[in-house]
Structure formats: structure tokens, C-alpha cells
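Propose amino acids for all 363 sites.
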């Protein structure tokens, strides 16, 4: 594909700042590779609630399902946090994931050697860590029904349901095994099978899928001890597949190991090439509008978009190399202990890409 249609959902807080940075870098990479893309901005989240009363307006949904790929910043913030509000920005994001059918959320975590000092862990514990989480994204506790509130005998109750069917588990675990094949050939399936029935089904299906993939090992890990092992044995992990909410929590932990929540990208994929790409961090209300956000998570999300949805493998590699080189040369936003703002960090990545291209790396 040489000309691509990308829907851009800046969203709330730092969302628009980081998507702008990511599109700038993607534009530079595309131009060098003789590729082009057109963008269309749409509303999602709090900004959409303010404009239309809905967190995911129909127009946004239609644009996203018709696009080659969707790039998202972040949604949410204190303005829309009233627990009794009719709708929330986050509901728009969940609705979009469901509407796009993106059931697998890939969150790669790679420790950059030059950032070992930004990690709260000792260098020897994390250097060389390289894992990818496959977070189930359209089922589990986030989507199960019944879900709601009720008053019984004058007492208010609230409830959520953790439910999976075998097909939902099978397709995401299958994807995890495929990802493991060209890597270290190890899948860790994370569950709470000592307590939850849904986890016991998850485990059974993981074993069944594993039997189809000779040469790839499968281990089961309970989610609580997995949280611990990420701190003590991060290097032992390769591909980790898990339920929606377990994956949400564990990946923020893993991001901190790699140096900052601002670094991690993600790709949400379904059956076809179309995907939804977003950094794993949120709208960071504390630094929004100040030009301080680390754009790397969004920039690497644009690289994943290029690779997975557009088939632009050279451009994706050029962006990733640009980030590596910029970081190796000392480019650091404040979350990494540096002084650069969003724009300066973005420029450092672009400069590093140019140098790599000048040295014959090609972009
Ligand atoms: P958060 O990820 O927004 O912020 C947590 C901390 O990390 C903050 O101190 C923030 O400044 C920092 N941080 C996050 N991204 C950063 C970046 N790129 N550069 C530098 N620092 C960064 O999490 P939160 O504060 O728990 O949530 C705030 C809002 O974001 C909530 O409304 C939440 O629902 C929403 N949220 C949205 C998404 C999404 O849209 N995908 C993801 C997570 C949270
Ligand atoms: C994420 C976020 C979202 C999630 C929220 C904002 C709905 O935390 O993308 O990690 O929990 O999936
Ligand atoms: Mn999250």
C-alpha cells in the first residue's frame, strides 16, 4: 500500500500533543520511502462529549471502520470524572475497540540499554529484557454483562462480570503463539485459575492451542505472582497473554520497568490488517498542554501502525531505529530525568533518522 488513510483521534489531555508528534515522524519516514498517507481528524473521548454529548459519535465510528488504520492519543480527565455522569470518555474508547473488533492488544516492552538508569530496578535485573504482552481487549471484566447498579432492600450494589467464551480465548492465545514463533518461543499465559472459573477455562484453552504449536513452550503463571516476577525475573518473559484487566495493570508495571509509562506503544489488532494504535499511557492531566509529554510511546505506535496495517516495514524500522539512536545519544524528556519537551524530543528522533539514512541505513 503506498497511499494510506489514517483516522487520527487526538482525544484529551496530552493526546493531541503526542499524536501530532507521531504523525510528524511518520510523515518524515513515509516521504523518504516514497509513500504517502492522508489523515482525517475525528472526535473521541471527553472532547467528543463536550461537542456532541457522546464519547464515540457515530461519525467517528464510521470513519474508523472505513480507515486503513486509526491513531489515538488518549482519552479522559478530571473534567469528565463525575461517577454519576451519563457517559465517560473511556466508554468511547471501549466502544471503539469493540466496533473495530480489535481483540488483541500488543504491548511490546523492551529495555533500552541506555535507559537502565531510568528504571527503578537494578541494571542487572532488567538489561536485555524483551517481552511482548498480548492483552485480550474486547472481552473479560471490561465488557461482561450483567454490569450495573441495583438497590436491594435499601442497599445499593454495583457489579461487573468477568466472562469469556472459548472462541474469545482461543483467538487471542493463538495470536500469542504465532508471535512467539520468531522470538524466544515461550508463551506465558497469565490467569487466576486458583480462584476464577473464567481463568480455568482460559488455561484449558491455552493448553489446547499450545498443543498445535510444537517447539513453543507454554507456562502458566498466576497474575499475582506474575506481578512479582516482573520485578524479579523480567528477563525470563517472552510473550505474555492474558485477560483484559490483568493485561491493563501488568503493562503499566512493565512500562515503569522500561523507564517510563511514556515510552510504551501498542497495537490493537483483529482479523484483518486494520488496527488501532495508541500509546499505553493516559491523558496525563498533570502535564497536559505544557508541551512536556514524552512522545515516544505515540511515535512507536505510529511505527507499529506502519508495519502492521500498512505493510511499511522499512519505514517502521527507520522510526524505531530513530528512537533508539536518539535515546542512545541522550535525548530525554522529563519523565526520563531529562529536560527536553515534546517537540525537542520529536526533533531528536527525526534528526537521528536522518543520520541513520545518511549513513546508508535507509529510511
Ligand atoms: P496517565 O497514564 O494519564 O498518567 C500517569 C502518570 O504518568 C502521570 O504522572 C503522567 O504525567 C505520567 N505520564 C503519562 N504519560 C506520559 C507521557 N507520555 N510523558 C510523560 N509523562 C507521562 O494515568 P492516570 O493519571 O491514571 O489517568 C489519567 C486519565 O487518563 C484518566 O482519565 C484515565 O482514564 C485516562 N487514561 C486513558 C488511556 C487511553 O486513552 N488509552 C490510558 C490510560 C488512562
Ligand atoms: C489503557 C487504558 C484504558 C483501558 C482505559 C482508559 C479505558 O487504561 O488503554 O490502558 O483500561 O484499557
Ligand atoms: Mn491502562
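Proposal:
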Amino acid at each position: 500500500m503506498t497511499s494510506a488513510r489514517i483516522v487520527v483521534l487526538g482525544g484529551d489531555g496530552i493526546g493531541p500533543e503526542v499524536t501530532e508528534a507521531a504523525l510528524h515522524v511518520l510523515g518524515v519516514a513515509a516521504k523518504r520511502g516514497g509513500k504517502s498517507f492522508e489523515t482525517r481528524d475525528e472526535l473521541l473521548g471527553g472532547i467528543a462529549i463536550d461537542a456532541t454529548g457522546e464519547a464515540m459519535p457515530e461519525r467517528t465510528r464510521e470513519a474508523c471502520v472505513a480507515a486503513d488504520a486509526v491513531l489515538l492519543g488518549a482519552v479522559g480527565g478530571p473534567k469528565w470524572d463525575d461517577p454519576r455522569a451519563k457517559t465517560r470518555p473511556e466508554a468511547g474508547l471501549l466502544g471503539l475497540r469493540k466496533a473495530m473488533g480489535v481483540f488483541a492488544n500488543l504491548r511490546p516492552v523492551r529495555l533500552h540499554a541506555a535507559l537502565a538508569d531510568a528504571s527503578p530496578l537494578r541494571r542487572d535485573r532488567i538489561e536485555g529484557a524483551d517481552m511482548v504482552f498480548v492483552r485480550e481487549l474486547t472481552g473479560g471484566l471490561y465488557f461482561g454483562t450483567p454490569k450495573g447498579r441495583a438497590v436491594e432492600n435499601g442497599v445499593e450494589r454495583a457489579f461487573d462480570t468477568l466472562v469469556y467464551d472459548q472462541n474469545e480465548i482461543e483467538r487471542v492465545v493463538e495470536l500469542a503463539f504465532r508471535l512467539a514463533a520468531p522470538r524466544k518461543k515461550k508463551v506465558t499465559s497469565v490467569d487466576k485459575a486458583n480462584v476464577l472459573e473464567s481463568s480455568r477455562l482460559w488455561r484449558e484453552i491455552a493448553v489446547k492451542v499450545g498443543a498445535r504449536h510444537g517447539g513453543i513452550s507454554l507456562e502458566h503463571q498466576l497474575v499475582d505472582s506474575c506481578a512479582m516476577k516482573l520485578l524479579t525475573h523480567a528477563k525470563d518473559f517472552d510473550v505474555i497473554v492474558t485477560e483484559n484487566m490483568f493485561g491493563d495493570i501488568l503493562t503499566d508495571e512493565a512500562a515503569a520497568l522500561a523507564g517510563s509509562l511514556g515510552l510504551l506503544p501498542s497495537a490493537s489488532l483483529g482479523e484483518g490488517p486494520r488496527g488501532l494504535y495508541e500509546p499505553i499511557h493516559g491523558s496525563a492531566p498533570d502535564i497536559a498542554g505544557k508541551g512536556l509529554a514524552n512522545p515516544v510511546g505515540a511515535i512507536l505506535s505510529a511505527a507499529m501502525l506502519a508495519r502492521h496495517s500498512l505493510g511499511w516495514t522499512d519505514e517502521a524500522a527507520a522510526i524505531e531505529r530513530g528512537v533508539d539512536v536518539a535515546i542512545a545519544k541522550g535525548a530525554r524528556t522529563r519523565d526520563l530525568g531529562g529536560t527536553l519537551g515534546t517537540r525537542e524530543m520529536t526533533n531528536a528522533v527525526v534528526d537521528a533518522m536522518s543520520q541513520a539514512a545518511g549513513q546508508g541505513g535507509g529510511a
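The mean pLDDT is 96. The pocket of 3-isopropylmalic acid (ligand 2) is lined by residues 76, 90, 93-94, 248, 280 (CB under 6 Å).
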